User: Which sequence fits this backbone?
């Protein structure tokens, strides 16, 4: 089964997408499953992972409600307030919704670059392990050394690095990113999501602009720890769903059919969906 391991849905009237302004005209409107369906059909994708786009539990509940009425959505990566005094209890409560497969604090938007290293985070990560949840890491390159320390301290928690850690493809400043990706990949409890790269590249990107980063991730993580995601509808800012999918298929074309199948679905099913009775087929 092919799985899109990273997409969003939103309704602007909900009012909690602070980052989504009219300056982002191509995506500054509502996006629902009917908008996504033609892209999935064209790509032969049978399941998806729906990912939060607002730092509110209200949005997570909104996404879970959608998932529970749509067989297509196999799981939801949501959000909770990791800084709340009752954070662990909040995680336990959200995890009662069986389609919750992970949580994603929006680390890239947190002013304190050392937030990941705060002692208050540890019991919440323990709560995630207890509930079989994945930690989706939405970080920038400067956060990768901090993320490395967290992963090292929590070997029993599964991590997924969103958007390959957002390498600075547009400027070509990726040497430190390359170093940190290699260090992260030494830990078996983290996988890397091949998503979001085109919005980090130059506006008129070509496949060659992505190859160095994708090849590096391939070399470090290998096909068993890579997941493909569209990052739709954000990908509409940089060419759209079909163009990004075609580019990825080209970049991975030399892999075996089994390895490609892992990246385009098998790994997402194993990492996100293999526990707690979630939809796997």
Assistant:
């Amino acid at each position: 089964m092919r799985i899109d391991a990273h997409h969003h849905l939103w309704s602007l009237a909900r009012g909690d997408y602070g980052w989504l302004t009219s300056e982002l005209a191509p995506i500054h409107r509502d996006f629902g499953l009917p908008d996504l369906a033609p892209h999935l059909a064209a790509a032969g994708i049978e399941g998806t992972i729906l990912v939060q786009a607002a730092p509110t539990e209200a949005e997570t509940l909104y996404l879970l409600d959608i998932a529970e009425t749509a067989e297509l959505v196999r799981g939801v990566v949501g959000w909770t307030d990791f800084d709340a005094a009752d954070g662990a209890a909040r995680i336990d409560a959200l995890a009662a919704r069986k389609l919750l497969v992970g949580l994603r604090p929006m680390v890239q938007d947190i002013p304190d670059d050392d937030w990941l290293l705060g002692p208050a985070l540890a019991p919440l990560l323990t709560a995630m392990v207890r509930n079989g949840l994945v930690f989706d890491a939405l970080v920038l390159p400067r956060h990768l050394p901090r993320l490395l320390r967290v992963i090292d301290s929590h070997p029993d928690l599964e991590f997924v690095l969103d958007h390959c850690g957002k390498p600075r493809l547009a400027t070509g400043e990726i040497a430190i990113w390359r170093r940190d990706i290699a260090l992260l990949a030494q830990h078996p409890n983290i996988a890397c999501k091949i998503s979001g790269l085109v919005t980090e590249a130059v506006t008129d990107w070509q496949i060659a602009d992505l190859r160095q980063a994708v090849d590096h991730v391939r070399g470090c993580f290998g096909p068993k720890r890579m997941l493909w995601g569209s990052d739709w509808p954000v990908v509409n800012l940089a060419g759209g769903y079909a163009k990004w999918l075609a580019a990825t298929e080209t970049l991975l074309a030399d892999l075996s059919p089994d390895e490609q199948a892992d990246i385009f679905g098998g790994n997402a099913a194993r990492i996100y969906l293999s526990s707690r009775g979630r939809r796997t087929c």
